Structures are given as structure tokens and as C-alpha cells.
């Protein structure tokens, strides 16, 4: 199929789509190992970028193909690998319930259809989607949250040959029990200087901790009084709040 496309032989849209998916799977298989080493080292540098770009050009550098740019495809592979890696790394075990938990975490990260995930550009918008994790105390909810945080999209910079940040960075865990009842709103939403006695400078609050696609884990939300939970609805659902 690649030779036909290179020679300009007409192909249907379905044939082109099948070829692109097959080429993406081939590249993914070739670079799972090198990407895994970056994850294990919690690094950002990509020493094999030129090799990846050469392989991409050979398979997908054909005019008329609907394929993401090489740098975006590498970042997508990196995200997919981390979505699989962290549930196995942070939540070990062979019990059926553990396997189901890992499967649910993976689905929360990339959905049920990986091809649709990349086709629809969901990898760019995962930071906008809230995830609710439920379970009894001690069942590993924070571990599940860290797995999901570890799969955030990290853009690749061609000039520096590196990803935007280490894979385990940008996860902020907040226990709502640490917020005092009298300053609950100010601690969550932050405040500006002079908003109340003792506010000597601007403060971002818990909601301002996560930036540029980072993850905010709000622990014990279900333990709050109902009137406090109502105040959190808009910030959690659509990221809108006011200091």
C-alpha cells in the first residue's frame, strides 16, 4: 500500500485510513521500549528523535495522508504508554478486582477506542475532563488519581528534543479536611490582597495550584457538608471560580 501511495496509484479514503492506522501501530511498537525508559527515569529528553522522525517520514510522509505531525504523534505515543504504565506500576497484583480497577483507570485515561481517541483530538483536551473516583478508605483512590495524573498530555519540543515536563510532575493532592471552616472558600479559591484581615498578599488557593494541564486531586470531597459541596460544583465541572 505504501508503494502504491508513493507511486500515485488512486486509493479510497478507507484504504488510506487503514494504512495510516497500520503505520501508526508499527511506529508505536518500535518505540514503546525507548519511551518506557524515559518514563522509568522520570525524564524529558528524547535522544532518538531523529530516528523516529526518519521512520515517520518513511511510513507517513506521503502527500494526502490524514496523519498527525511527527512531534504530536510522538507525544501521543508517550501519553498512551504512560496511561498503561502507571496503573501496572502503582497498582500491582493479579487479583480480578485489581485487574478491573486497572482497566477502569485506563478507560478514564484514553477511553475505549484508541483510534477514535487520537482521531478526535481527545488527547489535547483530557485536562478539561473531571474524573470521579469512589471507594472505601484504604482502597487506593489516591493511587488511581496519580495514575490518571501521570497520563496527562506532554507536548514535545523539536528544538530541545524534549517533552514539556517529567511524567510524574504536576500532580497536586489536596485534602479538604486541611481547610479550616472559617476560611474554606479563601483556601480553595484563593484571595486577593486586602480581601480580609490578614490577607497581606495574593494567594492562588487550592484551585490555582494546577496549571498548563496539570492535575488537581481533591480528596474527601464527599465528606464535606452539602452546602460546601454545592460551592464546589462549578469549579470542579467547568473550571470556573473567582478569588
Structural features, described:
With 243 residues, this protein is mainly alpha-helical. The chain has 2 domains: 2-169, no CATH class; 170-243, 3-Layer(aba) Sandwich (Rossmann fold), CATH 3.40.50. It contains 9 helices and 4 strands; from the N terminus they run H-H-H-H-H-H-H-E-E-E-H-E-H. A two-stranded antiparallel sheet has the order 1-2. It has a two-stranded parallel ribbon with strand order 3-4. Strand 1 (156-157) and strand 2 (162-163) form a beta hairpin. Helix 2 (13-40) packs antiparallel against helix 3. The longest helix is centred in the first third of the chain and has 28 residues, at 13-40. It starts with a helix and ends in a 5-residue tail after the last helix. The mean pLDDT is 86.
Q: Number of DSSP helices? A: 9
- Radius of gyration, in angstroms, nearest whole number: 22 Å
As residue ranges, the low-confidence spans are none
Largest sheet: 2 strands, antiparallel
Distance between the termini: 57 Å
Q: How is this fold's topology laid out?
A:
Layout: H1 2-6, H2 13-40, H3 49-60, H4 70-90, H5 96-110, H6 114-119, H7 141-149, E1 156-157, E2 162-163, E3 171-175, H8 184-189, E4 215-219, H9 226-238
Parallel strand pairs: 3-4
Antiparallel strand pairs: 1-2
Summarize the structure.
This protein is mainly alpha-helical.
Features of this protein?
243 residues, mainly alpha, Rossmann fold, two-stranded parallel ribbon
Amino acid at each position: 500500500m505504501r508503494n502504491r501511495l508513493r507511486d500515485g496509484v488512486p486509493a479510497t479514503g478507507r484504504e488510506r485510513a487503514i494504512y495510516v492506522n497500520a503505520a501508526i501501530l508499527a511506529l508505536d511498537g518500535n518505540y514503546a521500549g525507548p519511551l518506557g525508559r524515559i518514563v522509568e527515569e522520570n525524564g524529558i529528553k528524547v535522544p532518538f528523535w531523529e530516528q523516529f522522525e526518519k521512520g515517520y517520514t518513511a511510513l507517513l510522509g506521503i502527500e494526502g495522508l490524514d496523519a498527525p505531525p511527527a512531534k504530536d504523534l510522538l507525544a501521543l505515543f508517550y501519553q498512551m504508554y504512560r496511561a498503561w504504565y502507571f496503573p501496572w506500576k502503582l497498582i500491582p497484583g493479579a487479583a480480578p478486582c485489581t485487574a478491573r480497577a486497572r482497566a477502569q483507570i485506563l478507560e478514564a485515561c484514553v477511553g475505549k477506542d484508541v483510534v477514535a481517541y487520537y482521531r478526535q483530538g481527545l488527547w489535547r483536551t483530557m485536562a478539561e475532563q473531571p474524573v470521579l473516583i469512589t471507594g472505601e478508605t484504604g482502597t487506593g483512590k489516591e493511587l488511581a488519581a496519580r495514575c490518571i495524573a501521570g497520563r496527562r498530555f506532554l507536548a514535545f519540543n523539536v528544538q530541545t528534543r524534549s517533552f514539556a515536563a517529567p511524567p510524574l510532575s504536576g500532580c497536586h493532592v489536596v485534602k479538604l479536611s486541611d481547610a479550616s471552616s472559617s476560611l474554606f472558600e479563601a483556601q480553595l479559591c484563593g484571595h486577593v490582597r486586602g480581601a480580609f484581615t490578614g490577607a497581606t498578599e495574593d494567594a492562588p488557593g487550592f484551585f490555582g495550584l494546577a496549571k498548563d494541564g496539570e492535575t488537581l486531586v481533591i480528596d474527601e470531597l464527599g465528606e464535606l457538608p452539602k452546602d460546601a459541596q454545592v460551592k464546589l460544583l462549578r469549579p470542579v465541572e467547568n473550571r470556573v471560580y473567582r478569588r
